[in-house]
Amino acid sequence: MQTAKTMTYPTLVAAIPRDDFSILLDYGTAGKRVYDFTPNLEHKFYAPLADVNLFKKLTVADGQPEWITGQDFCPHTLYEQSVKLDQSENLQ
């Protein structure tokens, strides 16, 4: 019997939401990535985050991204669906 391989994900250290509804992600030694959150704003659960002021109230606690309005997001999905940034790009 074969067992399924389990993907090990790096821990999300920091997340910086930007005015264009993208999120700059810092995975420490695993690198930096960017995720476009825009498609998620169409879902009822995330609709309040269409207010950029609320969207920018994103924090990371123990590797879990969450907003002050109660929404959270799977850190593994962020990693899988984000794009790796060039080493020369900064989180700003």
Description:
With 92 residues, the protein is α+β, with helices and mostly antiparallel strands. It has helices at 52-55, 75-81, and strands spanning 14-17, 22-26, 32-36, 58-61, 64-67, 83-84. Strands 1-2-3-6 form a four-stranded antiparallel β-sheet, covered by helices on one side. It has a two-stranded antiparallel ribbon with strand order 4-5. Strand 1 (14-17) and strand 2 (22-26) form a beta hairpin. The chain is globular. The protein starts with 13 loop residues before the first strand and ends in an 8-residue tail after the last strand.
Overall strand count: 6
- Into which percent range does the helicity of residues fall? 10-25%
Strand content range: 25-35%
Q: Sheet with the most strands?
A: 4 strands, antiparallel
C-alpha-based Rg, rounded:
14 Å
Query: Average pLDDT across residues?
Result: 91
Number of helices: 2
Classify the fold: give the CATH topology: NE0471 N-terminal domain-like
Distance between the termini: 48 Å
Low-confidence stretches: none
User: What's the shape?
Assistant: globular
Strand line-up in the sheet with most strands: 1-2-3-6
The SSE string, one letter per element, is: EEEHEEHE
Class derived from helix and strand content? alpha+beta
CATH class: Alpha Beta
Number of domains: 1
* CATH architecture label: 2-Layer Sandwich
